[in-house]
Design a protein that fits this description.
The structure holds two protein chains of two kinds.
Chain A lengths: L10 H27 L5 H9 L6 H22 L10 H17 L4 H10 L3 H23 L1
Chain B lengths: L2 H23 L5 H8 L8 H21 L20 H17 L3 H7 L5 H19 L6
Classes of the chains: A mainly alpha, B mainly alpha.
Chain lengths: 147, 144
């Protein structure tokens, strides 16, 4: 099913238009976390806190994380259920999940903390992290396509 | 529970919900669109770039607005400015993260959100928690 919010004539344009529309909301959300709560909206950092040494902010962090599926449910009520192309193989999912979790902790952040919040605060570390993970993701996706 | 605690909780939940809605509208919860962005030699899908083109400047504006204040609206001080040091941990960690991201097309935010739609996301999220716990336990001497 098509989940496009703004339908346009070409699929590439669709991607950019809908990506940009969603990006405005993501930017507002990340901005409100900083302006309101003084926090970097780092999904992996919040989640990691719940799996290790529990930080004093854990209740707030959990509420932010609970908001993610809640936002998804609002989208479903509004636009209908999206059909996600999540890989079927539990081995691929488990391996990918492990690498994402381990790597995000080692690099102190994921896409939300490094690419969105980190680049918005002009962090050189985040620029390096973003360049590296997009590069290895491109190589991995190309490798998978060849197999 | 005082007013500040309630305000911070409400801000966190609202922000997370808007973030989740943004991920859904931008298509980023669908691994197909993320993997399409990585497929630069094939049918390239620019959705991820479209999302970043607005998300980063909007966040930047809020951060600049925050920078004019001495503390956040609920009184918590802002985090210290970003550290400069690029070390091996950052590079190796980001490289591993990217391999995982390129394998399944899921990063932490979309994976947690996908729990609402698709039971397969639970396998990913469980493995992600395991990866984090393994990292915590094997690098005890370092602060996360």
């Amino acid at each position: 099913m098509d989940i496009y919010f703004i339908p346009t004539s070409s699929s590439a344009l669709n991607g950019v238009a809908n990506g940009a529309a969603g990006g405005i909301l993501i930017g507002i959300a990340a901005g409100v976390m900083m302006l309101g709560n003084g926090r970097i909206a780092g999904v992996s950092s919040f989640f990691a806190g719940l799996t290790g040494q529990i930080p004093p902010t854990w209740k707030e962090d959990l509420l932010f994380l609970a908001g993610l599926p809640l936002g998804g449910l609002i989208f479903v009520l509004w636009r209908g259920e999206p059909h996600l192309l999540i890989p079927d193989s539990p081995w691929v999912l488990a391996g990918a999940g492990f690498l994402v979790g381990y790597g995000a902790r080692m690099a102190n952040g994921c896409t939300s903390s490094h690419t969105i919040c980190g680049l918005a605060r002009l962090s050189r570390r985040s620029l390096v992290a973003t360049a590296v993970f997009i590069a290895t993701a491109i190589v991995t996706a190309a490798g998978r396509a060849l197999l | 529970m005082n007013g500040t605690t309630i305000a911070r909780a409400a801000i966190a939940l609202t922000s997370g919900t808007i973030f989740g809605l943004g991920l859904a509208i931008s298509g980023m919860i669908d691994p197909r669109k993320v993997l399409g962005f990585f497929d630069i030699f094939g049918a390239w899908d620019p959705s991820l770039a479209g999302m970043l083109i607005t998300a980063i400047p909007v966040t930047f504006l809020f951060y600049r607005l925050s920078g004019r204040r001495s503390a956040s609206l609920t009184g918590r001080p802002f985090p210290p400015s970003a550290p400069l040091r690029v070390d091996n941990r950052l590079i190796v960690g980001a490289a591993l993260f990217g391999v995982g991201w390129g394998l399944a097309g899921l990063s932490p935010g979309p994976a947690l959100e996908a729990l609402a739609f698709d039971a397969r996301a639970l396998v990913f999220v469980t493995a992600m928690a395991t990866g984090m716990i393994v990292h915590h336990t094997t690098s005890q001497n370092r602060r996360p």
